[in-house]
């Protein structure tokens, strides 16, 4: 692996001092911000995430805030998911599409009030899209990036750790709901959510100044729980079938290709700019779709580019995320597979950077 | 320095194989794409750039293409620079602003035809802004990211190297003009431009398939010229006063604060969405502006965050790029300085990550 050159452009976060003190070994860049990828080793971090509890600096999940009379109208313009029944205090995973139905982001929407939303974004400058939409459509809404940096608390002991800092009320937070809870006199949105299947929370830390005090409080309270700094884990998220925007999908893909058709209410999401483009695909279905792909044989190299999927001498898709899974003792992968080969059990070949390996298509993920 | 974790999301380029074969040691991420930062060492690369010729993989300068009857109208909506006199075959450095006059990007516009433009972007997803503008304003224009990856040829021997591959006609290309020249049967835009003050060209390589053939042809032709793989050099670009979007300016800043007032024709750039917001600042001038800052004393650490500029116990600005310059035997830096202290020769302090160092403000850069 090469080194990453520091610069102001690759933004530090309110928790960077804690991340460095915890011995971060590698980063990726996500929304022009540093996102840790390795602390002890990817595999050690993986086992620990499944057994204990980790603090994740996911500040790179920047917020796009919409505020004003047209905030909800603009939200519905962005997504084919029908938002009308969504309540204040609720989070919702929403595909965001352009006017052709191409995916621009797959964020979590956070409804703070009837006229105030956060969009907790994946890796694209969605702020620019939302701001220009508000401008071009002359909507009565303020759009900006507030000083809010999410901190993840993930792993089977997350409830115990969070209860130690925020009180037992955290145990009552339902999945994809949030409560406003106090830390050092500040009310913070605490949601039961996160980019793993191990359970846990995301704290929307508003105000960079309380970043390190909160990090330290969690580290201190978690000593008996074997808390450790962690980060989204490439192996665990593939096992869990958690997609990554920019890896597993881009603006070339519709939500339906990404298996996100269940989050599209194409008939009722009136106002969504991509609705017309998606109506046909919603009825007929896509011709390719994301699948779990088991790659047999040796441990695969790092998946730093799309790997063609081949059958009978023709390309039938591509793998975009892959890793050796210690728990399942096989290579787990995600990829887009054409209809001709997406059935459970299809045997195809993957052209990795190190050669061809046999693979099997599955309809369910591992976790 | 930490490592960078590979993933498909951090896009490889048509030249990545050549970059790796040339022994790249470090990267940054720019427009979600890998941008090399070090080959031999930052200082060796620096000296070589000033003496010989380098091939730069600057694919990360992605293109936003505008095509159609409203292409030129949309271009003028994006920038306060008056584009009416710009000719086909011309390049133009244009600040791009939002409706409040905040900088969204500082790209080079390339006029391919009266109804076809490329915007060769700095580090922000300008594509999303331009697409949403086209949509919201219902303009008759297609906006997308074409398969075009710029390759830089920079250094005092750039003319000789380019002439060896494209013929002597390259010598006649004027600064910020381009010609369509042939390589392996493909017509490519070849511009006299680039992100250094050492002279050279940028080749807009259309079609990823000819990336490595062109890279190899340049490397082969340049053997006698001591050609080497290189990249934008942090020291040289600060000496030259070349700004970096995301480092030295963000959407918090107006073009006038960035010293780009000379590229704003705020009176005549009718249609620019940020024009009204900029009219007052164009008349009265900004209260802070980018300056060259010489930092005295020891070699400064990597500038990975804004360093406060302090005078009389008050903050009067910030440094956002800094490096030790071997040629000028001092620390060269760029920063935003308030009006009270921006005069030539002002003595102020810089609070670096390693402590306070004395500094002097200059009105001109080093190169």
Report on this model:
With 367 residues, the first copy, chain A, is of the alpha+beta class. Chain A folds into three domains: 16-59 and 147-238, Gyrase A, domain 2, CATH 3.30.1360.120; 63-133, Aminomethyltransferase beta-barrel domains (Alpha-Beta Plaits, 2-Layer Sandwich), CATH 3.30.70.1400; 288-367, Elongation Factor Tu (Ef-tu), domain 3 (Beta Barrel), CATH 2.40.30. Helix content of chain A is 19%, strand content 34%. Chain A is built from eight helices and 22 strands. Chain A has helices at 16-21, 42-51, 71-78, 126-136, 158-166, 211-221, 234-239, 275-284, and strands spanning 3-4, 26-30, 33-38, 53-57, 63-67, 91-93, 96-97, 103-105, 108-113, 116-120, 142-144, 148-154, 178-183, 186-191, 200-206, 227-230, 288-295, 307-311, 314-325, 330-338, 347-352, 355-362. In chain A, the strands form five sheets. Chain A has a six-stranded mixed β-sheet with strand order 13-14-15-12-4-16, sandwiched between helices. Chain A is globular and about 65 Å long. Chains A and B meet through strand 1, strand 2 and helix 4 of A and strand 1, strand 2 and helix 4 of B. Strand 2 of chain A pairs parallel with strand 1 (3-4) of chain B.
Any descriptors?
six-stranded mixed β-sheet; 8 helices; alpha+beta; 367 residues; Elongation Factor Tu (Ef-tu), domain 3; homodimer; 3 domains; Gyrase A, domain 2; 22 strands; Alpha-Beta Plaits; six-stranded antiparallel barrel
Tell me the layout of helices and strands.
The structure is a homodimer of 367-residue chains.
Chain A: E1 3-4, H1 16-21, E2 26-30, E3 33-38, H2 42-51, E4 53-57, E5 63-67, H3 71-78, E6 91-93, E7 96-97, E8 103-105, E9 108-113, E10 116-120, H4 126-136, E11 142-144, E12 148-154, H5 158-166, E13 178-183, E14 186-191, E15 200-206, H6 211-221, E16 227-230, H7 234-239, H8 275-284, E17 288-295, E18 307-311, E19 314-325, E20 330-338, E21 347-352, E22 355-362
Parallel strand pairs in A: 4-16
Antiparallel strand pairs in A: 2-3, 4-12, 5-10, 5-11, 6-9, 7-8, 9-10, 12-15, 13-14, 14-15, 17-20, 17-22, 18-19, 18-21, 19-20, 21-22
């Amino acid at each position: 692996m090469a080194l990453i050159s520091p610069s102001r452009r690759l933004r530090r976060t309110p928790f960077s001092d804690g991340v460095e003190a915890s011995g971060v070994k590698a980063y990726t860049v996500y929304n022009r911000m540093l996102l840790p990828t390795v602390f002890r080793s990817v595999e050690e971090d993986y086992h620990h995430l499944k057994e204990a509890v980790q603090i994740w600096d996911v500040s790179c999940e920047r917020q796009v805030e919409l505020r004003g009379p047209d905030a909800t109208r603009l939200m519905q313009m962005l997504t084919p998911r029908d938002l009308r029944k969504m309540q204040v205090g609720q989070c919702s995973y929403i595909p965001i599409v352009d006017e052709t139905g191409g995916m621009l982001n797959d964020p979590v929407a956070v409804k703070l009030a009837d006229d105030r939303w956060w969009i907790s974004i994946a890796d694209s400058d969605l702020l620019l899209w939302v701001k220009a939409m508000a401008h071009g459509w002359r909507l009565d809404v303020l759009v900006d990036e507030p000083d809010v940096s999410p901190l993840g608390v993930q792993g089977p002991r997350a409830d115990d750790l969070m209860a130690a800092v925020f009180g037992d009320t955290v145990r009552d937070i339902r999945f994809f709901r949030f409560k406003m809870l106090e830390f050092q006199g500040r009310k913070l949105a605490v949601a039961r959510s996160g980019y793993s299947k191990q359970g846990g929370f995301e704290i929307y830390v508003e105000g960079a100044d309380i970043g390190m005090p909160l990090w330290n409080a969690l580290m201190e309270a978690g000593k008996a729980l074997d808390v450790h700094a962690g980060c989204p884990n490439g192996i665990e998220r593939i096992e869990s079938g958690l997609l990554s925007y920019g890896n597993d999908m881009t603006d070339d893909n519709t939500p339906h290709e990404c298996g996100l058709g269940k989050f599209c209410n194409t008939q009722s999401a009136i106002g969504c700019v991509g609705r017309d483009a998606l109506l046909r695909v919603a009825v007929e279905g896509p011709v390719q779709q994301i699948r779990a792909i088991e790659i047999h044989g040796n441990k695969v190299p790092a998946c730093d580019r799309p790997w063609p999927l081949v059958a009978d001498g023709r390309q039938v898709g591509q793998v975009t995320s892959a890793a050796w899974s210690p728990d399942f003792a096989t290579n787990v992968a995600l990829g887009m597979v054409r209809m001709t080969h997406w059935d459970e059990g299809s045997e195809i070949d993957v052209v990795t950077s190190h050669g061809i390996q046999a693979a099997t298509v599955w309809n369910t993920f591992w976790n």
